[in-house]
C-alpha cells in the first residue's frame, strides 16, 4: 500500500487508540507521508523509531505486529520455552512490554516479564537463566526521548543473528495489518520480581580480581534509566563509597535533568560532574537508559577528563589481562572480541598477551554469536565495541554496563591506592603500545530525502576511495560485496554482508563509512596511531574536515 492507503486504513479504524487518533487528526500532509510511507523496519536486532501514530512509528500496533511475527517464528521453529521481557524508562516502555507479553500469551507462549524496569544485560541473563527460547527488550538505548524500540534475543541470550532476524522479518511481513491482533492477559504471563537482582549480581561478582580496601569516591548516574535500581546498591554492598546523583536517579521518560541520554555526548555529564566537583569525587560513571553502555569522567590533576568508549575498553582489557596473568588466571587459548570500527589497540593488547582476536561487524549481536560458536573450545575473555559497550563475563551475551561499572570501580580503586588515576593508567598503556586514538562523526539525514543522500554518499565512496595527503592506501574492505582489496588483489571477507566500507592506510590509520542501523544518519569512523595523543587528535580532525568537504560536494 502507498502512504495514503495506509493512512486511510488507520483513520477509518473506529477502535484506534484515542491518543493516537488525536495525533493522527493533527498531522499535515508531509507528516502523514513520513508516518505512513513505509513500515517501521525490523532490522537485524529489532526495531527502533520515533513514537507516534503510523506504520513508520513505534506504537502499540507496531509492537503487537512485531511480537506476533516473533511468536510465529518461535512456533514454526518449535521454540517452546518462553520469552523473557524487560524494559527501560522510556514513555510507554512498560505498556509495550505488557502488550508483547499478552500477544505471546494469546499464542500460548509463556513469558517472564520483569515487574519493574531493569537493564538490558539483565534481560540477556534472564533468557539464559530461565532457559527461555528468546527475549524482548523494550528500549531505544541511548536515542533521544522521542524514540523507543524493541530488541529481539535468541535462546543464547544474544540479539538474534542475521539469519534468524530475516526469518522473523518474513513472519512480520506476512501479517497484513497491525489491527485485530489478539492480546490476552492470562496464566502464560509470569513476573520476575526484585529477588532476581541478587541472582544476576551474584553471577557477575566473579569478574573482580583485586579485593582491596575501598578508598575511591564514585559519582554515579543512570541518566534517569534502568541502571538506577541496580548499580548504586550493588556497589554499596561491595563496599564502595558511591554517591548517586539523585536528580537523575528518577526514572523519567522526559530526561528532565540531562541534556543528553547518550554517554557518548559530553552534555550527558554536565550535572553529574558539577556534583562530583562539590564532593571531590575521583570518578563519574554514567550509564545509558537501558544500562548496557557506560561512560566515565575521571578526576585528573584539577579537572575531570572524559574518556571515549575505545579508551575505557582498552583500560578494561589491559587491566584484566595484566592482573589475570599475574595470578595465573589467564587461559592460553582464550578469545578477545572486537569490531571492525573499534580501536586497533584492543587487538594489539590481546596479541601482546598471546590471545586470539575475533573481529566482527559493529553490534554486540555478532560478538554474542561468535562467543556461542567458540564457547566449548576457546574461553571467553573480553568483548567490546567503540560505542561505550563492553562485556567481561559471558554469563550475559550482550554488552553490560553493570559489569563495566563494577570492574572500573575496582580499577579506579586499585590505582588510587597507588596514588594514580585511570588517566595515568591510560597514558602508561599508550607509552607501551603507541598513542592510538579514534573519532566518530555522525551526519543526521532524516526522512526520505535523507535516506537518498546516505545512499548517494555510500555509492560515491564505494567507487571513489578517499585520499589522505601523505598516506598510502593499503587496501579496503567492502563488506556489502564481501571483498577485501589489497594491492589490487581481491579476496573474500568472512563477515555477514552489510553496507560498510573500511579504508586502511599506512601508519595504522583507517576510515569507515557506515549508515546507522537504528537512526537516520551516516557514521564515519576514524582511527590512527601517532607519537602522542594530541598529535593523533589533531590529525583525525584534519582528515575529518577533508572528508566532510568531499561529502558536501557529493550532496550538492
Keyword list:
556 residues, alpha/beta, Alpha-D-Glucose-1,6-Bisphosphate, Chain A, domain 3, TATA-Binding Protein, 3 domains, 7-stranded antiparallel sheet, 17 helices, globular
Range of strand content: 15-25%
pLDDT averaged residue by residue: 96
When the domains are counted, the total is: 3
Q: What is the fold named in CATH at topology level of the largest domain?
A: Alpha-D-Glucose-1,6-Bisphosphate, Chain A, domain 3
Helix content: 25-40%
Explain how this protein is built.
- It is a single chain.
- This protein is 38% helix and 22% strand.
- It contains 17 helices and 22 strands.
- It has helices at residues 3-11, 18-26, 29-36, 60-76, 93-106, 120-129, 162-173, 196-204, 231-237, 270-279, 309-326, 345-352, 364-373, 401-416, 422-433, 447-463, 533-555; strands at residues 46-50, 83-87, 111-114, 134-138, 147-153, 189-192, 217-221, 241-244, 283-287, 294-300, 303-306, 335-339, 356-360, 380-385, 389-391, 435-444, 473-478, 483-486, 489-492, 501-505, 509-515, 521-530.
- The chain has a seven-stranded antiparallel beta sheet. It has a six-stranded mixed beta sheet with strand order 1-5-4-2-3-6, sandwiched between helices. It has a five-stranded mixed beta sheet with strand order 8-7-9-10-11, with helices on both faces.
